[in-house]
Design brief:
globular; Carboxymuconolactone decarboxylase family protein; 2 domains; 6 helices; AhpD-like; single chain
């Protein structure tokens, strides 16, 4: 998670510019994120699904997209990701679930292998 690499093209320019402007702050924030992820017994796939649920609850477009990408990278199935979004229906409500469904679908569409 620390540092940027060639896999950041999908990130908003404002986020990339923040990282460039405040590299020490970002480095420290990334270290805290890594420590939090490692602080308990949850495996990587479960962490990614929980974080997706939190992002959906917060109705954070960027966080939903980021956590869908990270879940896919961790080997989480599309069906499991879709179930997490669907679970939002009875907790967060229909509009939030539809918004998260849109953001998730857009990530899925962008993750299609090149033909």
């Amino acid at each position: 998670m620390t540092g940027m690499d060639e896999h950041t093209d999908h990130l908003p320019e404002i986020y990339r510019s923040f990282r460039r402007r405040f590299p020490d702050v970002v480095h420290r924030h990334d270290a805290v994120a890594e420590a939090v992820d490692a602080a308990g017994p949850l495996d990587e796939q479960t962490l990614r699904l929980v974080k997706l649920g939190i992002a959906l609850g917060a109705q954070s477009d960027g966080a939903v997209r980021s956590n869908v990408r990270k879940a896919l990278e961790a080997g989480v199935s599309r069906e499991a990701i879709e179930q997490v979004v669907l679970l939002g229906l009875t907790t967060r409500g229909f509009p939030a679930t539809i918004a998260a469904w849109k953001w998730t679908s857009e990530v899925f569409d962008n993750e299609q292998p090149d033909a």
